[in-house]
Amino acid sequence: MSRLRIIDRSFLIRISMLFMFMAFGVAGFAAELKIEMTQGQWELKPGLSTSIWAYGGTVPGTPIIVRQGERVKIEVVNRLPAATNIHWHGLVLPNDQDGPFVEIQPGSSHTYDFTAGASGTYWYHPHLMPVLPQLDKGLYAPFIVLAPEDGKYSGDHTYVLDDWYLDARGKRLEGVASGDMERYGNIETVNGKTEEAIAPLILRSGELHKLRFINASTAAFHTIAISGHSFRVTHTDGHALAQPYSTDKVTLAPGERIDVELFASGKEGQRFEMTSSRRDLGIVIPIVYDKGSVPAVVSPFSAPQPRAYLAGPPDRPDFTLELSSAMGMMGGGGMMQGGMMGGGMMSGSSALRWTINGKSFPDTVPLDVAVGKLVTMRIYNRDMMSMMMGHQMDHPIHLHGTYFQVVSINGSAPKGELWKDTIPVPSGGYVDIAFVMTNPGTWLLHCHIIDHEDGGMMTAVRAK
Ligand SMILES: [Cu+2]
Predict the structure, then answer these.
(1) Residues 263-287: pLDDT tens digits?
(2) What separation in Å is there between the alpha carbon of 444 and the centre of ligand 1?
(3) What was the ipTM of the complex prediction?
């Protein structure tokens, strides 16, 4: 088991990342990177450590920061006691680089080799079923593709949100908490730290900072509010908004990312904070004003040209999916090792399974689409059983292989074009999405609440 001195190692990784970026971070050149997946210990705050699986020994794991159009070669070495793989969430890649169908056995390595396309905030995590026991132990990290304008901000900060289900000494608790149907934590972290261990954001009056929020939780939605300021939301899931908007809080479903601008309107010596709506679980990011001020930095963000596939909900979508749940045996093998075991979900030999059009993966019916052709899809969240059990929830649906336009939420078009790769389908409601698969292959569409994904709420999209 790797028990390296995490802080020193983390520092070295960040320095070597910086060197890598300086040496290779130029369009046309390749970024080469080696990531070891190891077991270890991680300090969430002084006096509270827990066992982790991690990319490069840290939580979040080694951040990958490249530029648009840059070739990326990543050798991943599996020093974990289980087979695993990496999915590059949100990146549009050739099918064999996407991850889910790769298996990296313990002791072996695998090299991913692809070109980073559109700029944006992405992330990476395991995608070998069951996903929950791996992602939940800390296997996640940011993947940032820089846009030219990103360098014009006073600072560029990534905040990866997560939750942990631990006892008072930091030991992982198994299954789900009493009364829960998913694995929710009792401690929440930002960038692997909770409470007083969270680093403050240092601002100077007049600066304009870019903040990138990533929700790496397996089930928890996170709402982060800011005091004394507003966020200007510029990107969702890495895609620039046609109509950026201001708000004092943002909510992210599992898998989602939101980029905001933060204008430092405060004064030297003032203090503010960004807090979770579940503040008592530990996420409070102090905002501290440093000495002095700078001339007000103007936003380098410019809204993209319109590129909508559709103006409103389609009359007859190509595909209609209904998200639900059912009691009964899972299809396929090995699916029940996920979050539902040991959490009171088992009832004799049957269990709650999560379904798309009445079936659980791998028995779901694959969706056949043509490469380069527009596909319209309506996704209903009609989970009557969960509603009857007082368990209404949105299902954040993630599509691999491309991104999609959100055409409607409950029949209403969003204000301005909205492009995403993960969309919460509201409880009792529906969303319309439209997309074009640009690369052939078998891709996955699934709920990013990992208990639901492992429990069968997933289907294949076969692009030919
Ligand atoms: Cu779900």
Answers:
(1) 999 999 999 999 999 999 999 999 9
(2) 14
(3) 0.85
